[in-house]
Specification:
By secondary structure, this protein is mostly helical. The protein has 5 helices and no strands.
Length: 75
């Protein structure tokens, strides 16, 4: 599994736990409505600023999200 795939998997998990659609999360983060889907499908990679914004909306700490990505990726 690539890093972008691991990120997408973890992002999807937390988005669903928050009860948000991709479009709802994108709108709350002030991102294009298709961007979250692109992240979840590993077709885009987020900036640090975007990770922090997404985590703020999902009410998780960025390091928690990154730690899960590391674990899934195998670091």
């Amino acid at each position: 599994m690539e890093i972008s795939e691991a990120f997408g998997t973890v992002l999807r998990k937390y988005r669903k736990l928050a009860g948000l659609t991709q479009e709802e999360l994108a709108l709350q983060c002030d991102l294009d409505r298709t961007y979250i889907g692109l992240l979840e499908r590993a077709q885009r990679q987020p900036s640090i600023a975007t990770i922090f914004t997404i985590c703020e909306i999902l009410k998780i700490k960025p390091h928690e999200l990154i730690k899960e990505v590391e674990n899934l990726y195998g670091i």
